[in-house]
């Protein structure tokens, strides 16, 4: 539409960045350029060098300054939030309340993403290989652990073991976890997934967030578990390299 030659140059890539910045978030343009380079490289082998030229990188920087929007980060959950939510849930807890509290505490103290503990809302995005298995749970009197089959930065499904220690003071994730385990094993002794709702299905992301909304405003979401746990560890003097 601008009557430019099809062969890429520093100027055409720079013009592309300027044009797109008026319509989409500049952070997305970097990904668009990567896709363009991938498609054009068989025909124009120097396209990646053009993409990395000073003209294009400076144009990207200017687009970020002029059209960029600040990151909107969710608020970290605190220790007090955990205790308040546990206290607000009626006793004896129903199976679903025990499950909700277990995901909340395990995500916080295990520095886990909500997507690692729940299933995606969209059916086509669900992957059974990512579901945590009940058989992976191990425990002693002072900790429990389970196997995370994969995570966001684990493309080869090597997995990790998540170890969560019992606390001598409140909030203590240990009794909450085994309160849920007792209920889960009673209702579904032969089901494979570790986390199951009262109807025998893996909880979806919205299932958890809808319950979290009963106690906390929208400023808190799935990211609040991981960031809250990391913030708490930093506040008690844990070295940054161990948090990482």
UniProtKB/TrEMBL annotation:
Keywords: DNA recombination. Gene3D superfamilies: Intergrase catalytic core. InterPro entries: DNA_brk_join_enz, Integrase-like_cat_sf, Phage_Integrase-like_Recomb. GO terms for molecular function: DNA binding. One of its GO terms (biological process) is DNA recombination. Coiled coil: none annotated. PANTHER family: P CELL-TYPE AGGLUTINATION PROTEIN MAP4-LIKE-RELATED, PHAGE_INTEGRASE DOMAIN-CONTAINING PROTEIN. This is Tyr recombinase domain-containing protein. The lineage of its organism: Eukaryota, Fungi, Dikarya, Basidiomycota, Agaricomycotina.
């Amino acid at each position: 539409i601008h009557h430019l030659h099809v062969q890429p140059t520093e100027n055409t890539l720079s013009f592309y960045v300027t044009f797109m910045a008026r319509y989409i978030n500049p952070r997305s343009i970097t990904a668009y350029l990567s896709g363009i380079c991938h498609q054009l490289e068989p025909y124009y082998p120097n396209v990646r060098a053009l993409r990395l030229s000073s003209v294009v990188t400076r144009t990207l920087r200017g687009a970020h300054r002029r059209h960029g929007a600040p990151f909107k980060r969710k608020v970290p959950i605190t220790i007090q939030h955990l205790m308040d939510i546990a206290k607000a849930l009626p006793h004896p807890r129903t199976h679903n309340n025990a499950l909700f509290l277990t995901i909340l505490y395990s995500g916080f103290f295990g520095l886990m993403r909500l997507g690692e503990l729940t299933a995606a809302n969209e059916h086509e995005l669900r992957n059974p290989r990512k579901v945590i298995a009940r058989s992976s749970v191990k425990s002693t009197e002072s900790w429990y652990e389970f196997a995370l089959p994969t995570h966001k930065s684990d493309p080869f499904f090597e997995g990790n073991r998540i170890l969560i220690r019992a606390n001598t003071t409140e909030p203590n994730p240990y009794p909450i976890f085994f309160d849920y385990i007792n209920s889960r094993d009673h209702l579904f002794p032969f089901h494979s997934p570790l986390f199951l709702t009262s109807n025998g299905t893996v909880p979806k992301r919205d299932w958890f967030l809808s319950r979290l909304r009963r106690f906390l405003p929208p400023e808190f979401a799935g990211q609040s578990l991981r960031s809250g746990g990391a913030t708490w560890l930093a506040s008690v003097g844990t070295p940054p390299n161990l948090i990482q």
